Amino acid sequence: MRFHQGTVLLVAVLGLARSVGAAEPVTIEYWHINSPTFGGPAAKELVQLFEAKHPNIKVVEKFQPGVYTGLMQQLQVSLAAKRPPAVAQIGYNLTAYAAGQFPHVLLDKYRKSDPAFFKGIPDNIMALGVLGGTLHGIPFGVSTPVMYYNADLFKAAGLNADQPPQTWDELQRQGAIIKQKTGKLAVYLQQPNDEWIDQTLIWGNGGRPLSEDGKRIGWDAPEAMEAMQMWQDMVNKSKIAANLTWEEGLQAFLSGHVAMCLTTIGRQEHMRRNATGFQVRAVPVPRFGSKPLATATGGNVLMIFASDPAQEKAAWEWIKFVLSPEGATIWTKGTGYLPPRAELANDPRYLKPFFDEAPLMKAALQTFPYAKPWVSFPGPRGLEITKILIKARDEVLEGKRPAELILKEAAQQANALLPK
Amino acid sequence: MMEATALGAATARSRTRASRRWRGAAVGHLYLTPAIVLTGLFVYWPLVASTVLSFYDWNLVSPTWAAVGWQNYRELIASRAFWMSLVNTGKAAAALTVLTVGVPLLLALAVQRVGPRWRDLYRVVLFSPTVISMAIACAVWLWIFHPLYGVLNTTLRLVGLQGPAWLSSSDSAIWAIILVTVWKTFGFNFVLYIAGLLTIPREMYEAARVDGASERQLVWHVTLPLLAPTTLFVFLSTFILSPQNLFIPTQILTQGGPNEASNNVGYLVYQLGFEYFRVGYASAAATLIFLVFLVLTALQFYLAERRIHYGR
Amino acid sequence: MGASARGVHVLLVAACLLVVFPMFWMFSTALKPPPEIFAGTFRLWPSAATLQNFTTALTQVPMLRLFWNSLMVAVVVTAAQVLTSALAAYACAILRVPGRRAWFALFVATMMVPSQVTMIPNYLLIARFELLNTYTALIVPQVVTGYGIFMLRQTFKNLPTSLVEAGILDGASSWQVLWRIVVPTTRTALAALSVLFFINTWNQYLWPLLVANDKYMRTLPVGMQEFVSLEGGTNWGPLMAAATMAIVPALLAYAVAQRYVLESFVAAGLKE
User: Fold this and answer.
1) ipTM > 0.90, yes or no
2) Are A187 and A277 part of one and the same domain?
3) Does the CB of B240 have a partner CB in chain A at under 8 Å?
4) CA neighbor of A144 nearest in space, from A251, A322, A35, A266
5) Are B61 and A103 an interchain contact pair (Cβ–Cβ within 8 Å)?
6) Is 1.10.3720.10 the CATH classification of the domain at B75-307?
7) Does B105 touch chain C (CB under 8 A)?
8) Closest CB to A81 among C60, C123, C232
9) Which of B91, B149, C56, C146 has the fewest CB atoms lying closer than 10 Å?
């Protein structure tokens, strides 16, 4: 008996001594979507600076192909094998699914332990990581859609390149002129494997992609149907808009075949570098008449998936660093995403010079205060809802049936999949 | 053939003794062992696990999961995506079988007829699409398919036709995918036919020529019949592998859209499991598809084997 | 050489042009400087050809390491696949083991199992044995292929029985007959199969992505994805340059197999 007790005590003391005096290096994995031309070097720089400040923590940054969807897939299998990364970028449209279905760390506790970190991030941005009142992830990448346009094509059509359209009505008017005078298509709204622009249109026209109580899809509300009908007509009736896959649409803009392109500010570096023989400019996306500007916010939250406390702690340190003024500056410069800490944009020590030199970013800055969430659909079937809405969009743009019918059907199917 | 009979007749007794020692022996099973073990471990065990999983609703990660009986199968049979996928796969399998079984054969025969230096060149060039990765091929074809200024539509415009928006139009999407797949995979069968043609003994041709056969008769009565086992293999393997071959083009070019117009069984399983994370549901789809293909292939195989003469 | 020979050439040339155009486009894009890639008017050949995309590709991504990984895996997998296929096909077609039809059916049926079904359980298995990011993970699950067994069984079944009979008469064991008689006679088919297996493995994407996503264990197709980003914009120039470099080994494998095996068969005259 005594022997046992002694051994137990000894082991306990030794164990305690180990954890108290421990300075064991911790290795964490950080998964991201930053390719070499889209923030890859920034990610590496951040890792170097962080490791210099935290000699006990080693960060292994891993690029995941396939953007946010690809990352989610890898995340799912790694969770199934119980080897998830400590921290990963989760696209906003996937956040509800990840928060609801993947085991992760809830972050509200850090509000109490690190209040200084949370100061300076505007509430409407922080809200992007809050679902059902709980903080699941820290918003890291913040992007808005902007309207890039080909100044040379405008001039060729006899329009004033300094006064691109500010409302959809104006866009249709100017677009018709461009088509008539230059023969080129006027506009392309991005059609990726998600409904970001669709949500932007709905918010813009005063609708809500999802009701407040999360039980009704907003695609069959009058505002949504009106906006989508407008898009359908631009493609099929007035024929000023292109119906192309995302990559095709961007290529068409860059090669001068389409005058305006509504897509993410994240692409601004790519646009600048690849626009052949014309000047690219950008302005906020058009408004619906006198309604205020409203756009869906793109980008990602950082979520912690580590189950080991030491790894969790290291992951939180990493998050604090990349969102610090220093980290956010490197990040913004490398990606074209906006800094979650809005005031950095005007701070000459940090991002003011960058924004001054990147005229395309101004459009995003102007949009920033009007950014609305990119609603991700709750429940285990949330991802299928996204697909239903994408299919509806594709069908609307093909124009074989009126938008109203298609959207009503889609909303019905989607509503059935929302949690009761 | 004559050789065999003479030898056979002369050594019948010793042959049977040796064969009995040789054939059907346990050692035969030894040869099968690596294949059995590895297939069992890496293909059949997952298939069984997946079939079991098809009776559950789970995403592999959630702590909660539910047994749902036949619900997944019922939902599948009622889903438009499933039927569109089947139909599209059928269209694709038919097109692939015609284009990548018939055309490579024709080309292999044609290559056979030209001089040796030309032959090398043609063989390398015709085989080259097979060499690049499917993902890169699709990336390249993305440019070719561009409705506004891609090569396809530009060429069509030259002859006064208006090409469709290949990837965004529900009528043409599946055909765009089929086109890329045909382009990419016909080289496989091309090589197999060349190999097959090379194994036909020259004596067969000479004997037939001596009998006064024309070129065309040679092809019809000597080449094609002797090529039959290869052709059968090419035909069946193209059919069986069509879902797999369609997958990457679908993933990169259209993601099954627009509105399921280009969805197919290979992509559907991926979509259900990796985009919706409904692993149970995806497993149900996979099991169903496996069964369908199993039955169809078995039918074709037995029908065909009966008609092929192996020369035994 | 008459009209029919010319007709054959016409057919072949037409086929070649149709077939090779995308490859040519890939190569020409690899040589174009960025401003030309998105040029509105379609240019077949860059006006200012440059090698900068190749250097970018080589520096932004550890190409040599990726090459090595792909090569290692492709060679080993090819050899293993040909070997296991030959053994199994031999057992079914020539040794005629009892139950061979059932075994054969089982092997062929594996071709109908969608790879997405086997991927996740295999991945979990590999993870459980701590074999992620190793060559073992990349190689072992693929060692047996129904395609190879199917194809070789056809080939072996088609051999004249006299060959094997002669071997048995000489008192050869089954192993000896396989290596001294069957394999040399069918080397055309074996070579063709090897080439196809090599290329297949060389270009594989989904499985290596799952089990070997560490930066230095990746294979070429996975590594090349670093140039693709729908969010920030795909870097077409270096991507096409990397793709061009990637086809070299696969084309080489084909050229070698073609010249030294297929051609040698014809040149030496058919042996049986």
Assistant:
1) no
2) yes
3) no
4) A266
5) yes
6) yes
7) no
8) C123
9) B91
